[in-house]
């Protein structure tokens, strides 16, 4: 059982449809501090849609989302305090790794730039892609792109990490290192919400 029992957020009576296609109906969900939430289910059941709603990528006027953190004063503050890692890495192929990191850092208006770059470098070292950061991302493998985007989001030090099929392109060794990183992250009271079809993806 987690030592952090209080919630970060709660969603009540969530309903969502794409035209006549009802995707989510009366869904209730709580994200507790220091906990991992695994969303699983058949193809097309609405997992990615749910993650997009929880991260504010899809906006719903009637969304009943309650925040329980002093930093989540508004939806915008909340979005700055969390990170969303979709199943495709959102990077610019024509930039190198460092320039992608700097771009993301500036987009998110990170105030402590030195800390962000230091943390990103540290993670890149742990995940063994530091030597590639000065190379153009277009030449990265898919797994390397996934790692770089994970690093870019993780270095923002979010309170909740939302991940859609996070490690599908990662090799076993890197996946093991990522789990250690996420274990430390969780122990600090942060939360992880992730989607995976893999029955053996025992997160942490
Ligand atoms: N932009 C969209 N417009 C209309 N329908 C959509 C849109 N995006 C997704 N859908 C539909 O909504 C349903 C849920 O899609 P979603 O991607 O959330 O499912 P999923 O559970 O994540 O699936 P998978 O396991 O295959 O990734 C599917 O029927 C899909 O076709």
Automatic annotation (TrEMBL):
The keyword Nucleotide-binding applies. The keyword Nucleotide-binding applies. SUPFAM superfamilies: P-loop containing nucleoside triphosphate hydrolases (SSF52540). It holds the Pfam family ABC_tran. GO terms for molecular function: ATP binding; ATP hydrolysis activity. Residues 9-204 form the ABC transporter domain. InterPro entries: ABC_transporter-like_ATP-bd (IPR003439), ABC_Transporter_VariousFunc (IPR051782), P-loop_NTPase (IPR027417). Keywords: ATP-binding, Nucleotide-binding, Transport. This is ABC transporter. It comes from Gracilibacillus boraciitolerans JCM 21714.
């Amino acid at each position: 059982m987690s030592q952090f029992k209080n919630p970060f957020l709660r969603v009540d009576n969530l309903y969502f449809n794409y035209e006549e296609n009802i995707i989510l109906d009366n869904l209730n969900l709580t994200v507790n501090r220091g906990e991992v939430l695994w969303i699983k289910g058949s193809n097309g059941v609405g997992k990615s849609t749910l993650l997009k709603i929880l991260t504010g990528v899809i906006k719903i006027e009637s969304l009943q989302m309650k925040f329980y953190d002093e930093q989540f004063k508004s939806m915008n503050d909340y979005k700055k305090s969390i990170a969303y890692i979709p199943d495709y890495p959102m990077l610019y192929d024509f930039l190198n790794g460092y320039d992608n990191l700097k771009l993301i850092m500036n987009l998110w208006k990170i105030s402590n730039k030195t800390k962000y770059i230091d943390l990103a470098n540290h993670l890149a070292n742990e995940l063994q892609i530091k030597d590639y950061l000065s190379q153009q991302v277009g030449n990265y493998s898919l797994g390397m792109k996934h790692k770089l985007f994970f690093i870019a989001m993780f270095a923002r030090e979010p309170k909740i990490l939302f991940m859609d099929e996070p490690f599908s392109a990662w090799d076993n060794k890197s996946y093991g290192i990522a789990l250690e990183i996420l274990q430390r992250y969780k122990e600090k009271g942060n939360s992880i919400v992730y989607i995976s079809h893999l029955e053996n993806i025992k997160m942490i």
